[in-house]
Design brief:
Layout (H helix, E strand, L loop, with lengths): L19 E14 L2 E7 L4 E6 L6 H4 L7 E10 L14 E12 L16 H6 L1 H4 L3 H23 L3 E2 L17 E3 L7 E3 L5 H9 L4 E10 L10 E11 L3 H19 L11 E3 H8 L13 E2 L1 H4 L5 H9 L4 E7 L5 H13 L6 E8 L2 E5 L1 H18 L6 E7 L1 H18 L10 E5 L4 E4 L4 E4 L10 H7 L9 E6 L2 E8 L4 H9 L5 H7 L1 H6 L7 E7 H9 L29 H6 L12
Parallel strand pairs: 3-5, 6-9, 11-17
Antiparallel strand pairs: 1-2, 1-4, 2-3, 4-5, 7-8, 9-10, 10-22, 12-13, 13-16, 14-15, 14-16, 17-20, 18-19, 20-21, 21-22
Helix pairs in contact: 4-6, 4-17, 13-14
Length: 596
């Protein structure tokens, strides 16, 4: 028999009754039932119940073991009695009567529990991550992550993609976030950078004549932590295709990612045909370029119902600002003064003066609007708003007014808040869509200049003719995002593969030809020697896994994450370098003085 095990802790079934077996694993739990000891033995695969009675040679050792000790057990497989069968365990019909037991490794008193799923301080969980990872939910999440990535790889190969690896030590990137810099020992005073994304390399792969590239790529960005991205590093399904237009990329990748979701959705419905929503439409209807389509609320422009009305606040805004509009946020079932007041208080907590509203209720046989706005604009306008929005008895509507560019984010947040508060969001489904036609440029109010809106390497719609003859702020890009349940899970574009078009695009944001050649020389040089039209995208592995496992935090699907202060508490990183290391790298540290 093998030194440590003949079976795993998930393998044995009723058909194995009578066998002598050997198991090894961690002591998950010990229960003393009047001198009869029950040990739940756990390994990576599952859990098996071990029984030791006082007549067993193993009993004296069994009395000493504690939680998380590692032990080997030899024993006989026996069937449980009908009343003791555990239907929740694959091994629940059997148990092992211990004949021999060996302690392979002891364990000190635990700094955090492994049994169960208690809420425990994050700093302790991350410092003792090796214990935290033994917890059932976290352990299953990490196993599921590997399966999801394997499914991505399989489906990419099925549609003709080949995985190629790109460098980790590279040059500083124009992606927009801060780089992690790596000092060169050989080249004094110079630095490598860790890649923010394989963007330029994957384009060079296309120029090199490879047709369909992908990789599960690590990406590094020295940016402040966000709720939907861990500090330091993340992984993406990165891909690029040659001789394609936007429709080709979307048509290729939609079934791949839909299939991944369907495989791991546990029966939850997954969108079959992803709607394509223009960026401007998404902002107008949902107040976001990553809308949660499980929320049925769709905003509408109701400006004409307030123009010249008795509600002077909105009427004056519309009269004095040609850009001003009034948007309605309809809220079915929200027609109570208490709910409307809660929404108004929430808006004030968001720094807004308030949130105007109307709610409808039956008065006898008549349906009438209630609230200050309804009184000010009168019955006819109130009824016209109700008719436009398709609202009825017990429904409400909230209103925001001004320049949409200034209030759109708040309007989107109000839509989300109303949908969640009224329980209108169907949480048991995956709603996916494409957001297309992103603005190529945007106005940088701080620097009073035009900037790139999304990805500077994308092809502008209309090509160089649009760059030369169109208002930059009206130019759209061949850029697209995939969105699921309010999360951007992929982003991509058709690339600008023409050197003169590339130079012109950068000139509009104030970078001349020489700067383009200096900063993006590898790509610019490659485009001089026959570049195929190409495009691609990158899907966020971490976010997709988080959605599919139902985790609430990216740390719950990441093996060894940093904390929110970008510290690895397990390995104590970042740490100071020794004087010898600094000398080798020709570096000297300058610690900034902190205010007392």
């Amino acid at each position: 028999m093998h030194r440590y095990r003949s079976h795993t802790c998930a393998q044995l079934r009723k058909a194995d009754v009578g066998q002598t077996v050997r198991l090894s694993g961690w002591v998950h739990r010990v229960r003393d039932h009047g001198g009869l000891l029950f040990i739940d033995l756990r390994d990576h695969y599952g859990l098996t119940q071990v029984v030791a009675d006082p007549d067993s040679p193993a009993f004296s050792i069994a009395e000493t073991v504690r939680g998380e000790w590692v032990i080997r057990v030899d024993g006989e497989v026996k069937a449980r009695t009908a009343e003791t069968v555990n239907a929740n365990l694959p091994t629940g019909e059997i148990e092992i009567f211990a004949r021999d037991m060996e302690v392979l490794s002891g364990a000190k008193e635990l700094p955090l529990p492994v049994f169960g799923e208690p809420d425990y301080p994050e700093d302790i969980r991350l410092k003792y991550r090796f214990l935290d990872l033994r917890r059932d939910t976290l352990h299953r999440n990490l196993v599921q992550r590997t399966k999801i990535i394997a499914e991505m790889r399989r489906r990419m190969a099925d549609v003709g993609f080949t995985e190629y690896s790109t460098p980790i030590l590279t040059a500083s990137s124009p992606e927009g976030a801060r780089d992690f810099l790596v000092p060169s020992r050989i080249h004094e005073g110079k630095f490598y950078a860790l890649p923010q994304a394989p963007q330029i390399y994957k384009q060079l792969i296309m120029v090199s004549g490879f047709d369909r590239y992908f990789q599960i790529a690590p990406c590094f960005r020295d940016e402040d932590p966000r709720a939907d991205r861990l500090p330091g590093e993340f992984y993406q399904l990165d891909l690029e295709m040659s001789f394609v237009e936007q429709d080709d990329v979307l048509a290729t990748m939609e079934p791949v990612l839909r299939g991944v979701f369907e495989t791991f959705a546990n029966g939850k419905p997954v969108t079959q045909s992803f709607p394509r929503i223009a960026y401007d439409e998404a902002m107008r209807k949902y107040g976001s370029d990553k809308p949660d389509l499980r929320n049925p609320i769709v905003m509408e422009d109701v400006s004409e119902h307030f123009r010249g009305s008795g509600f002077k606040v909105f009427a004056n805004i519309l009269a004095n600002d040609p850009k001003a509009e009034v948007w309605a946020i309809p809220a079915k079932t929200g027609g109570s003064r208490a709910f409307c007041d809660r929404m108004n208080s929430w808006a004030q907590g968001e720094g807004q003066p308030g949130l105007g509203y109307i709610f409808w209720r039956k008065e006898g046989e008549a349906l009438e609007g209630a609230g200050p706005l309804a009184k000010n604009i009168g019955e006819e306008r109130t009824e016209a708003i109700r008719q436009q929005l398709g609202l009825d008895d017990g429904d409400a509507c909230f209103f925001v007014a001004g320049d949409p560019k200034k209030f759109v984010a708040f309007a989107g947040a109000a839509r989300t808040r109303a949908g969640e508060e009224l329980n209108l969001v169907d949480r048991d489904r995956f709603e996916l869509c494409w957001i297309v036609d992103f603005p190529f440029y945007e106005w940088n109010e701080d620097e009073k200049k035009v900037d790139f809106g999304h990805n500077p390497f994308s092809m502008p719609q209309g090509g160089i003719e649009a760059l030369e003859g169109q208002d930059p702020l009206t130019i759209k890009a061949f850029q697209y995002d995939m969105v699921c349940n309010g999360f951007e899970i992929a982003s991509g574009g058709i690339r600008n593969h023409l050197p003169e078009t590339m130079v012109k695009a950068f000139e509009i944001v104030g970078l001349d030809r020489q700067t383009v050649e200096d900063r993006f020389g590898g790509l610019y040089r490659a485009f001089q020697y026959g570049a195929p039209p190409h495009g691609g995208m990158a899907a966020g592995v971490d976010r997709i896994v988080m959605l599919l496992t139902g985790a609430k935090n990216l740390r719950e699907i990441t093996m060894f994450p940093m904390n929110q202060q970008a510290q690895d508490l397990l390995m104590n990183a970042p740490a100071e370098a020794s004087p010898a290391q600094l000398r080798e790298l020709h570096l000297r540290t300058v610690v900034s003085k902190k205010d007392d």
